[in-house]
TrEMBL record, chain A:
Biased composition (Polar residues): 8-19
Domain (2Fe-2S ferredoxin-type): residue spans on this chain: 4-80
Family: Belongs to the xanthine dehydrogenase family.
CDD domains from the UniProt entry: fer2
GO MF terms held by the record: 2 iron, 2 sulfur cluster binding; iron ion binding; oxidoreductase activity
Naturally occurring in which organism (per UniProt): Labedaea rhizosphaerae
Location of the region described as Disordered in the Swiss-Prot/TrEMBL record: 1-22, 273-311
Protein name in the entry: Xanthine dehydrogenase YagR molybdenum-binding subunit
InterPro entries: 2Fe-2S-bd, 2Fe-2S-bd_dom_sf, 2Fe-2S_ferredoxin-like_sf, 2Fe-2S_ferredoxin-type, 2Fe2S_fd_BS, Ald_Oxase/Xan_DH_a/b, Ald_Oxase/Xan_DH_a/b_sf, Ald_Oxase/xanthine_DH-like
Keywords: Iron, Metal-binding, Molybdenum, Oxidoreductase
Pfam families: Fer2, Fer2_2, MoCoBD_1, MoCoBD_2
UniProtKB/TrEMBL annotation, chain B:
Protein name: Xanthine dehydrogenase YagS FAD-binding subunit
Signal sequence region: none
Single GO term (MF): oxidoreductase activity
Highest rank taxon of the organism: Bacteria
FAD-binding PCMH-type domain boundaries: 1-205
Length: 863, 323
């Protein structure tokens, strides 16, 4: 059947496109016209990444039939040259950049309309939020977006600014113009699209997999041929288009020998529940949701693994608590806290384009946080020699922990490419993304916290059951070892195995659930002791860096003005809460950075990737400062396999690993050029081809770990954070609004204050999501994930963004080479707990379960 | 293309599992999850299907393909509650494309219906997995075997406005007649029937209107409960006419005549509004997971009554006390 031809004017150029008129317009724009600035994310009109201007009006092109383009004038991000682009770049209203084209296209239309109606004045936050309500940013760049839109409306960015006010994020202009290419945008000659055949059974032995004749089928099952969750990859197929590949995948017939399933923690712990890992080898092969730290062996009872203990004088702790119970001690606080499964929800889905080269080597374009690790593991898996695997991840649309390792989309793409003899792309759809690519495990934590007569911490017990599906390694209670001194404590972690997809590391694994339980409990103790919650923490917490933060926090006017706990009676109640956090210091001590002078430009090379955290800008900034170079004399080549080893972007280890190596390389380059101080710019033209390699020098007194495991060493010292949060609770309609957040961060030297601020703001916004909105819902009978779309899996929008202030306390890290450590995880740990404590302060009701949904709040305050 | 030609095309399309398409925002979303396969017949090709016509008698006719965004702007002065409803639903990009007719006839948003892993009354099956399953967002007035709340916010506002709809080939019918407790359909138009326009009677002499949707985030969320109030007040603050309707609570959008009756003739003060709002509770028959919607319904009704009348009701905590 021939497809009708549609006439469209796109960015001023007329096109005739033959297409199925019912296809979403976004596919026509991206696939037929090659305008890949427009992104497909949710496919449901929720996130706005695909926004186009249709005759000047922004519309969601994922819900627009191609037929609706006929005779219209379309403007995509590539067709815009608008002040709002410079404004978003200047105010750092972006991180990974995947949502940015949508914000730009909408923002441009809004700014023009606003200025026509109101003149060159800034709109209010509420007006901006309402105008951008159809856009989601998972990195949480909303704060900069507010500033950018307001500034653009005043005309502040009408003219191109001078060189010295270049945007804080060096690749910002690429991202606001749609030029930045992500893995999903890669289109190689003869490329096919792959699709995954996924399990329709929650637990079964796969007897056979049959594809239509002449179909190349790539096997993705493990050796035991068992599927243990719905959606588990079984096989992969490829075809000319994604739609055709998906159709082909539908035609693959899988024969299952079904086994009884335990689809949630309740089922899994019930008497007589089917055991998901009955044998030792199966248990050993279970995936791990922790952050690269090997789990220690422990016992199993049915589907429950554990305890893994990190106790300290546990018998004393238990004895003291039992005695306190016996005397009904009011200074014993006991409660059970729960947190939901939180899904990373990277806006760029997992994707890989695999291309075998004529010389037998392999090129992988991949949306990954771990270029170096992927290359190593791919070489091992496909038995390729050194330098025979090149991985490219120029821009990565978010990671948050979900994109590490050699994941299934890469395995499928590589095998399909091998079998078909052409490049193959595998990109997940939103449902796959929200159901099979990992998540922060849910938790159920029983806490007992005892203070003695002097109000000192006397004992702590925590039993946490993690809900990580078929994955083990939930470490929540263990983190209780690192807080509040050395009082006796019993800390036990258990995994409850279910027939659900495996959990995985997510920004500060275990940290937010631990803080939810402990920091909420400490606040309850403060109420019982009648003590200021910050003063109590200051007494219990021996960490000097956090003492500085407590002093800062107690000096905030909002803290002094906080309402008395539970004293308000009106409908709208204001509350202020606090929570502390601390995190380990990880680094990749093997990091090196190569500098080469190429045509008068200093080129920096390292395998690290920028997933929105800003490492490209940090490297640029260090080089410019150290060498006195203008922006056009520095080029950073990262996000690809190079000889200069770079870290995986995980465990907050990127900047502290890379930046000191850049310093070192810059020092060596100066030495080679013989320029002791001042700019080296005059010497570059004579230095073509000069190369140096800088390394990440060892910290003073070394590390806690004698050697790096999987590229990770644990450094000395703990970072610290204190969050003070203000909320407004509508006690009638159940709505909690986070109005203002202050974050005190003690992670040493900050290399780039604007980008560090953006990281912290994004961490706070993800914390707001964890506290109030995000939750994976399962059908209790079948285990099907109901929240497999962005309408039902609810992440914060711009209107849910509080006003944010970040205070960096930069002292205390002199032993660290470069003087600073990571903060991307640290800044999210205590956010939800501080919100919970603020709700408690506002209402007198003590929330125990996240998220604090309207139904729970209403039930809680009226119980 | 004439309306006759479209209905002919539609008859052919229906025989192949197809359906009509207005703005397409619902149809395309369902296409994405396999709940709409086409072929689709675009209604935008019919002349006269878009636009707002003010009539000499004060009534207004809104053609079915008029966008929600246009309704939000054009009717702001005459029908503030309707315009506020239009301005609060979905997102700006959706409102720019979605039509008033399409909004009335969209399919429900139950996460079981929209997930191809399940079969239910709405997708041709014979059960409701949500009833025994996770139904946090389902009905609190349980009068149908299907527990999905009706998704149309515009229908709630139009009910409160006593609007009628024009359907090709028959006399105008009240908006309420578009809907029933039928578990297998979200509206009662026969296959192939085309909704042409919505007709609103003249507004009240002094039209006060308000819309509220109770949601957890600031914007862009399907309502837990939504309510519309239209009030006419005389110089002494006595309510002389009222239209109150709610959504997110039942298989159909609901008008609340008992609440209206308690308002009309009374002085618009806090006690009147609270007493009237509380009457909404009597309809509730919550599911295990929707008990919270009982008080939320009462309080959302109170919210729109307070805002429409300008009587603040924020000081006391009324709805749950038996005083």
């Amino acid at each position: 059947m021939s497809e009708p031809s549609i006439g469209i004017t796109v960015n001023g150029t007329e096109h005739q496109v033959s297409t199925d008129p019912d296809r979403p317009a976004v596919d026509v724009i991206r696939d037929e016209l090659g305008l890949t600035g427009t992104k497909l994310v949710c496919g449901a009109g929720v996130c706005g990444a695909c926004t186009l201007q249709l005759d000047g009006t922004p519309v969601a092109s994922c819900l627009l039939p191609a037929a609706a383009l006929a005779g219209k004038s379309v403007t995509t991000v590539e067709g815009l040259a608008h002040p709002v682009q410079r404004a978003i770049a200047a105010h750092d209203g972006l991180q990974c950049g995947y949502c940015t084209p949508g914000f730009v296209v909408e923002g441009a239309a809004f700014v023009d309309t606003w200025r026509a109606e109101h003149g060159d004045v800034a709109p209010s936050r509420e007006e901006i939020a309402a105008a951008l309500a159809g856009h989601l940013c998972r990195c949480g760049a909303y704060d900069g977006i507010y500033d950018a839109i307001a500034a653009a409306c005043t005309g502040a960015h009408d003219t191109v600014e001078a060189d010295d006010s270049r945007p804080p994020r060096v690749e910002a202009m690429e991202k606001v113009t749609g030029r930045a290419r992500y893995t999903t945008d890669v289109q190689l000659p003869d490329q096919l699209d792959g699709a995954i055949v996924r399990s329709a059974s929650a637990h079964a032995l796969v007897r056979s997999v049959k594809a239509p004749a002449d179909t190349v089928l790539v096997d993705l099952l493990g050796a035991d041929r068992v599927v243990r969750y719905l959606g588990q990859p079984i096989a992969a197929v490829a075809a000319a288009t994604r739609a055709q590949a998906a159709e082909l995948a539908q035609q693959v017939v899988v024969e299952y020998e079904r086994r009884p399933a335990a689809v949630d923690v309740e089922h899994a712990q019930a008497p007589g529940a089917p055991v998901i890992y009955p044998t030792k080898p199966e248990r050993k092969a279970a995936p791990n949701s922790g952050e690269g730290v090997p789990v220690l062996p422990t016992s199993w009872r049915g589907n429950v693994r554990g305890p893994s203990s990190m106790s300290w004088r546990s018998r004393t702790a238990v004895k003291r608590i039992e005695e306190a119970k016996g005397r009904n001690d009011s200074k014993l606080f006991s409660a059970t806290f729960t947190t939901p499964v939180q899904v990373h929800t990277c806006l760029e889905p997992h994707g890989c384009v695999a291309a075998w080269q004529p010389d037998g080597s392999l090129v992988l374009h991949m949306s990954t946080q771990a270029v170096g690790e992927v290359a190593e593991r791919a070489a091992k898996r496909w038995q390729l020699g050194e330098g025979q695997v090149r991985v490219v991840a120029e821009h990565v649309g978010g990671g948050f922990g979900a994109k590490t390792g050699l994941t299934v989309e890469a395995i499928a793409a590589v095998e399909l490419a091998k079998a078909h003899g052409v490049p193959v792309r595998v990109v997940f759809d939103r449902s796959e993304e929200l159901t099979t690519t990992g998540y922060r495990p849910g938790t159920h934590t029983e806490v007992q916290l005892l203070a003695d007569d002097e109000g000192e911490l006397a004992a702590l017990t925590m039993d946490t059951h993690g809900d990580g599906g078929v994955a083990i390694g939930s470490g929540v209670a263990a983190l209780g070892r690192l807080v509040y001194g050395t009082a006796p404590r019993r800390l036990r972690d258990f995994d409850v195995i279910t027939n659900q997809s495996p959990g995985s590391p997510f920004r500060g694994p275990g940290g937010p659930p631990m803080a939810w339980a402990v920091e909420r409990s400490v606040d309850e103790m403060a109420v019982r002791l009648g003590e200021d919650p910050i003063a109590l923490r200051r007494r219990w917490d021996g960490n000097k860096k956090r003492h500085a933060l407590y002093d800062w926090a107690s000096g905030l006017p909002v803290w002094a003005d906080r309402p008395a706990p539970g004293a308000q009676t009106g409908r709208f109640r204001r509350g202020v809460g606090v929570a502390a956090g601390n995190w380990m210091y990880f680094l990749d001590p093997g990091t090196t950075v190569e500098l080469e002078v190429v045509d008068g430009v200093v080129v920096a090379r390292n395998t690290v990737q920028d997933i929105g955290t800003g490492i490209r800008s940090v490297i640029t900034g260090v080089l410019r400062d150290e060498l006195g170079l203008p922006a056009d004399r520095v080029r950073v080549e990262i996000g690809r396999t190079t000889a200069a080893h770079g870290p995986t972007s995980g465990g907050s280890r990127t900047t502290t690993s890379v930046a000191p190596a850049v310093h070192d390389a810059a020092r060596l380059l100066r030495k080679e050029l013989g320029v002791e101080r001042g700019s080296i710019v005059d010497r570059l033209d004579q230095a073509n081809g000069l190369r140096v390699r800088g390394k990440r020098h060892r910290d003073r007194r070394g590390y806690l770990t004698p050697f790096a495991m999987n590229g990770v060493a644990v450094g000395r010292g703990m970072s610290g954070a204190v969050h003070v949060t203000e909320v407004e609770v509508d006690t009638r309609l159940g709505k909690t609004r986070v109005t203002r957040v202050w974050a005190g961060i003690a992670a040493g030297r900050v290399y780039n204050e604007r980008l560090a601020y953006s990281q912290c703001a994004g961490s706070i916004i993800q914390g707001v999501g964890f506290a109030l909105h995000e939750q994976r819902h399962l059908d209790p009978a079948t285990g099907v994930v109901l929240t497999d779309n962005l309408e039902d899996y609810r992440i914060p929008g711009i209107g849910d963004t509080p006003e944010i202030e970040v205070h960096f306390h930069q002292d205390g890290w002199d032993h660290v080479t470069g003087g600073g450590i990571g903060l991307g995880e640290l800044a999210t740990l205590g956010v939800a707990a501080s919100i919970g404590n603020a709700v408690r302060n506002a209402t007198g009701w003590s929330p125990l379960d996240l998220p604090i949904r309207p139904d729970r709040l209403l039930e809680g305050i009226h119980a | 293309m004439s309306i006759e030609a479209v209905t002919t095309a539609l008859t052919t399309a229906l025989a192949h599992g197809g359906e009509p398409r207005a703005g397409g925002t619902d149809v395309m979303a369902r296409r994405g999850v396999g709940r709409a396969t086409g072929p689709f017949v675009d209604l935008g090709v019919v002349p006269g299907m878009r636009g707002i016509e003010w009539r000499p008698d004060g009534s207004v006719r809104i053609a079915a393909m008029t966008t929600v965004a246009e309704v939000a702007v054009e009717l702001r002065d005459a029908y503030p509650a309707l315009a506020a409803t239009a301005g609060a639903l979905a997102t700006p990009q959706i409102r720019a494309v979605a039509t008033i007719g399409g909004n009335l006839l969209q399919r429900n948003r139950c996460w079981y219906y929209r997930n191809p892993a399940f079969s239910c009354f709405q997708s041709g099956g014979d059960g409701c997995p949500a009833r025994e399953g996770d139904h946090l967002y389902s009905v609190v007035i349980d009068e149908s075997p299907c527990v999905a709340p009706h998704p149309s916010s515009m229908a709630v506002a139009l009910l409160a406005c006593d609007a009628k709809v024009e359907v090709h080939g028959r006399d105008a019918v009240p908006v309420a007649e578009l809907y029933s407790d039928d578990p297998s359909h979200d509206h009662q138009l026969a296959a192939g029937e085309v909704l042409l326009a919505v007709v609103l009677p003249p507004p009240f002499a002094t039209e006060h209107g308000s819309y509220h949707r109770a949601i957890a985030r600031a914007h862009a969320e399907w309502p837990l409960v939504e309510a519309v109030a239209r009030l006419e007040l005389d110089q002494d603050g006595v309510i002389t006419a009222a239209g109150v309707a709610v959504g997110g609570v039942a298989r159909t959008p609901l008008r609340l005549p008992e609440v209206e009756a308690a308002l009309v003739g009374a002085h618009a003060d806090e006690d009147t509004l609270v007493a009237a709002a509380r009457l909404a509770e009597q309809r509730c028959t919550p599911l295990p997971g929707t008990k919270y919607k009982v008080t939320l319904l009462v309080d959302t009704v109170l919210e729109v009554l307070a805002r429409a009348s300008g009587v603040p009701c924020d000081i006391r905590d009324h709805a749950r006390r038996a005083d």
